[in-house]
Amino acid sequence: MIGRTALRTAAPLRSASRLFSSSASQNSAVAVLGASGGIGQPLSLLLKNDPLVTSLRLFDVRLAPGVAADISHVNTPAITTGYSPDGPEGGLEKALEGADIIVIPAGVPRKPGMTRDDLFNTNASIVRDLAKTAAKVAPKAHLLVISNPVNSTVPIVAEVFKKAGVYDPKRLFGVTTLDVTRASTFLSGIAGLKPSDVVVPVVGGHSGVTIVPLLSQAGPAAKSVQPGEQYEKLVHRIQFGGDEVVKAKDGAGSATLSMAYAGAVFANALMRAAKGESGVKECSYVESPLYKDQGATFFASPITLGAEGVKEIHPVGNVSAEEEKLLEAAIPELKKNIEKGVAWVAENP
User: Fold this and answer.
1) What reaction(s) does this enzyme catalyze (predicted)?
2) Other Cβ atoms closer than 10 A to 25
């Protein structure tokens, strides 16, 4: 058993293994920025298959119209249009007009030996420029940031929106759903259970030691993990699952397909909540009061989603002694990542 089993969970989460639900009656306009990339293409295909998406706008510096033409042949209702900087359909501003949700997977992928921080300068510039246009054209849209390093790029978006005078912390999300799906998948394999029956809240941030899986809150499955080496290996695998994929792809890519799936899961949850479904809970990296006094002004934890975005931020809840140590290691690193993003956008407005 893992340390002290939690007496209660921070908030009940549904399993992320069930991709789409369409209980809501209204639909959404979704824009994907970076739609022709390794994450963008499969993410766009998954969103085309989501019954809640009516209008799907795909933007990239190249190939987005082709991706849109390809996806538009899928026999689902979403009207799909591709946009490029100089294309006949219009550029980025046109793609964002009337968007309810903007998903940003744009950026360069990780290669072997690269950390998320190695991607920082390139992706920070890309995210900043996209955020500037979003703040101008669609300031009330929900922004879902996938571009790494999420710990820093989300604060960059926040600073851009603050400067434009349109920042609403309830509408800005760092997508950390992949950490949740990995934890569910890996733990369920050890426990011999269906991934859909194993839900693990993952809190903190979205890179390395800032990722804190609360395995003690995973119900009966937590009992299958022995303290010591097995527990430590499982935590490490959840924290550094992206490295596993980069290595397996032998330098030819990163965790693009699983990240696309995770992005689609979170977008669907947000759409359901925005259209009136109650009790929609997911983990996400948002502006948070939970560890603000320690400098972690953004923090991932279970949140309840509503029509305006973040409806309620739930506390971490009771944790084991091992998880307390993980949090103690995560928060200082997270603080540095946040400060790095804020400082960068101040120096590169």
Assistant:
1) (S)-malate + NAD(+) = oxaloacetate + NADH + H(+)
2) 9
